[in-house]
Amino acid sequence: MRSPVLLKMAAPIDLELKKAFSELQVKMIDTQQKVKLADLQIDQLTRVQKHAKLTHAEITTLPDKTRLYEGVGRMFILQSKEEINIQLMDKHKTADEKIKELEQKKLYLERSVKDAEDNIREMLLSRRAH
């Protein structure tokens, strides 16, 4: 039978570990959801880039005097070839910048979960040592 002093010390340690594990679990679930969202956003931005690139490639083959129209809501506006090319390049550039930001965000999230796991691992090892 354990002495009352040991039981009193073991209970706070177990509660502390339990709390740390539950916090880690919540953090991991939250991070996994954020990483999935970032992946979806990256996929969507990649499609935007691909669309802009293909449209740009098609437009460059057209003669300079070709009448081009930009879709705006339910209507179409006559635009110059140069204007449409500029818009397509801006779209591509903006998507590229957002993809880089999302990749950085994913790295940060993954690193923070790894740090939390390492902290719990250290806590467990220190508990076993005592």
Structure description:
The chain is mainly alpha-helical and 130 residues long. It has one domain: Orthogonal Bundle (Helix Hairpins), CATH 1.10.287.370. It has helices spanning 4-60, 81-129, and strands spanning 68-72, 75-79. The protein has a two-stranded antiparallel sheet. Strand 1 and strand 2 form a beta hairpin. Helix 1 runs antiparallel to helix 2 (81-129).
Overall pLDDT level: 86
**How many helices does DSSP assign?**
2
Q: Strand order across the biggest sheet?
A: 1-2
Give the CATH level 1 class. Mainly Alpha
Which blocks of ≥5 consecutive residues have pLDDT under 50? 1-8
Tag the structure with descriptive keywords.
single chain; 130 residues; mainly alpha; Helix Hairpins; two-stranded antiparallel sheet; 2 helices; 2 strands; 82% helix; 8% strand; rod-shaped; disordered N terminus
Task: State the gist of this model.
GO terms for molecular function: protein folding chaperone; unfolded protein binding. The chain has 130 residues and is mainly alpha-helical. The chain has helices spanning 4-60, 81-129; strands spanning 68-72, 75-79.
